[in-house]
Design goal:
The complex is a heterodimer. Chain A is an all-alpha fold. Chain A has helices at residues 10-35, 39-53, 71-78, 80-96, 106-129, 137-168, 183-216, 242-258, 281-290, 302-308, 326-354; strands at 58-59, 65-66. Chain B is mainly alpha-helical. Chain B folds into two domains: 1-28 and 149-231; 31-147 and 245-262, no CATH class. Chain B is built from nine helices and two strands. Classes of the chains: A mainly alpha, B mainly alpha.
Amino acid sequence: MHIPDGYLSPATCAALYAGSAPFWYTALRRLKRAMNTRMVPLLSVFAAFSFIIMMFNLPLPGGTTGHAVGVGIAAIVLGPWASILAISIALVIQAIFFGDGGITAIGANCFNMAIVGSLTAYVIYRAISGRSPIESPRRVVAAALAGYLAINLSALFAAIEFGIQPLLYHDASGAPLYAPYPLHIAIPAMMIGHLTVAGLAEMVVSAGVVAYLQRAEPSLLRNTAPGTVAGELGALPAVSGWSTTRPLWIALAILMVLTPLGILAAGSAWGEWSPDDFTNQASRSQMAAASDSHLPPAQAPAGLQRLASFWTAPMPRYAPPFLKSEIFGYMLSAVSGTGLIILVFLLAGWISNRRPG
Amino acid sequence: MRRGFIERTLSSLLATSQYAATAEQMALAGGVLQRVDPRVKVAGIFGLVFAVAASRELRVIGSVFILAVMLALFSRIRMGRLATWVWTPVLFFTGTIALPAVFLTPGRPIAALGPLLVTLQGLRSAAFLLSRAETAATLSALLVLTTPWPWVLKALRTFRCPMVLVAILGMTYRYIFVILQTAFEMLESRKSRTVGVFAPAERRRLAASAVGVLLSKSLQLSGDVHLAMQSRGFRGEVHVMQDFRAELSDWYWLAGFLGVAAAAIWYGK
């Protein structure tokens, strides 16, 4: 999953560096405040540990072997912020010194594996393990799923980054300039390998290490287990608090304000056509231009025709009917969508905290 | 005989430490790039990597690749080493990904291989991917094979990289080899005590225990390092000695690197 140089356009790389920056900044601030002088040696040694783990050849069910990233176990033992930094540092050294992953793609690799991976692993582990005792088998299952889903979500992000390249960047002859496969090829190609091999490797290492730590060093599991005494590492920062997550909220607000930028793009998004687009001459030309000069059928496919009216969105095409300005429509849609997602997570967090162990 | 996971992991760990040892030796050899100020090399090589990523002309990418090979030759980097460490792995990895694009990318057919049609666009797309990956990897290798890692890190300070991150990167690199040695010894001692073949479930348990023990040892090490740092007066502030001195020739090199990168971006538009 280490993306080399040349697979992503400079613009995509820059966007992913920018996307990672607030997470790095927040993680660094939180850790500095929580750990003071312990931060430097802990992160250094744990990043070195993550680096070595990536070289372990793990035996998997079915007789094959695979490599893990170690993001599951890092998030479970250190918490999400320290895990983000430790895995990012390991990835930077891999890219610059060992040539594993590209220099221009460091932002993308850190975003996919360190940020998406750590946050997914932490949220899944906490949601499933709940307030169960440290030695509970539920924690092993939680770790297995956390590792498996974290690595697969990271792979999905990488596949989407690959898949949008041919849509956005090609030369005058239509040849893709970067990763050549569109989403319908990139996603299955990437996910098959991760759902079957890499995900299993992460699952084996996360579940196996948690099971081992339950027997040998349970104190290392206490830092991410609510309701237990803090472990040997002391109280590591969790994901909460306005002051330390402020950069993330600011970045989110900037992204919401920037959502109308999509209006500047010429043509329609490939594959997001409505039945009316098939009969509209201007839309047909745009569809042909986006499909390598292949003309769309004269009528919308019957299935699309039938299912298009199945659900009508409250804000169709990101434009609430009562707003005349397209730009404000986009912003309002971004605010409403983000608000709904935050609401769902707040509700899930509230339910999870109420649930007795 | 098929190698087990212990043997494979041991050989990965050994290959990594051999690569690092050889890279450090080569970085001190008296070649052309070894004499250039590390700050200039970091800025110049990163600039060239960016230019390769931004270029939309195969000829431009090819020219930068030739330049990188020439720089390697003048820096006493053996072509055999570059082929083993950089070109063959990139060719194998990216080639496997690029090959189907030759047939799957829609466009003008130019040849047929049985039922499969080779398209011009597919061929160009595969060439872009492979040439960019090879050139960028060669340039990255040039930086590491001609500059000791602590100097690369020091150079990063010039580009406003936070001091604490530079310190962590430096310490991580050092502890990679400490933990690598620990992992190597653990697995080797396990191998020397192993008779017969483990069942698959037992192998997985063994691997997970090895990772768990390594985790526990690493965290213990971080505690020891912290105490050692505190005993030497560490109070959370990091200071790095900055003793690079750029000479006139280094400014010429910087102008050369940036000139080539700008030309590559301009002609590769």
